[in-house]
Write a structure and sequence with these properties.
With 238 residues, this protein is α+β, with helices and mostly antiparallel strands. Helices cover 18% and strands 30% of the residues. An 8-stranded mixed sheet has the order 16-15-13-12-9-11-10-17. Strands 6-5-4-1-3-2-7 form a 7-stranded antiparallel sheet. A two-stranded antiparallel ribbon has the order 8-14.
């Protein structure tokens, strides 16, 4: 029986988390830095996850280790000797998080890439001083739809529509991931795997930097955008 063999670039290692639960998968890294993934892939939901991987090359391997390109009857190479491991051992991933007041934490490498899609801003990161000035003068009707969470560094994350016209970083939202406008995960399937692998104790957003680092912001960290709440926050961070 022939076995399927997929080659994936190292930069796409995080995408393997989406198939980490599939029984029987094994992985190894070759001398040229490529990740090899082998197994008998089903045609159901797990098969869809496999086909969504950013694969560089797709082979079938026979009992003699000969590699056949997908759909081709002639072998083109022989499977190299590799240190195969069960995928769960090869990729022991539980992505760490950091609460908003505590700063950012390094995780497995998350790649970002420019996106040509036009998306509506869902959130805004700005300075607490800018937010205070706006909140002191804005009509209550503009504040009512907004909520905010402040960090120890003097930054504030604002969500709601319409967002205030303040300088800062606008973000869009996908599956509770907040990404800078103009960027997307590379590959985009990372959005789903992060949702699967970062089950927080409380409902939360994952707030991403341009370099792929991120922090967790619990829904409970947000306050209604009342003037009194903004003033109290400024005093707490004074």
């Amino acid at each position: 029986m022939m076995e399927q063999m997929l080659l994936i670039e190292e930069k796409y290692r995080p995408a393997l988390v989406t198939v980490r639960h599939i029984a029987g998968l094994k992985a190894a890294t070759s001398a040229d830095g490529l990740i090899w993934l082998r197994g008998s892939f089903s045609s159901g939901k797990d098969g869809l996850l496999i086909r969504a991987l950013p694969v560089t090359q797709n082979y079938w391997v026979d009992a003699d280790g000969r590699l056949f390109p997908e759909g081709k009857p002639t072998p083109v190479a022989v499977l190299p000797t590799l240190d195969w491991q069960p995928l769960k051992t090869f990729l022991p991933v539980t992505l760490p998080t950091a609460a908003l007041p505590g700063g950012l934490t390094e995780t497995i490498r998350i790649e970002m890439a420019p996106s040509g899609l036009v998306r509506e801003a869902f959130a805004l990161i700005t300075e607490l001083s800018h937010w205070k000035t706006y909140a002191e003068t804005a009509p209550q009707t503009r504040l009512a739809p907004l909520r905010f969470a402040a960090s120890d560094s003097g930054k504030v994350l604002i969500i709601g529509q319409p967002l205030p016209p303040l300088p800062g970083q606008h973000l869009w939202e996908q599956q509770n991931n907040l990404l800078p406008l103009g960027l997307d995960f590379d590959p985009p399937v990372l959005a789903e795997l992060l949702t699967q692998q970062t089950e927080a104790a409380a409902p939360s957003y994952r707030l991403f930097n341009r370099d792929g680092r991120w922090e967790q912001v619990n829904f409970s960290d947000f306050r209604p955008a009342r003037r009194s709440a903004v003033r109290l926050t400024v005093n707490d961070h004074g």
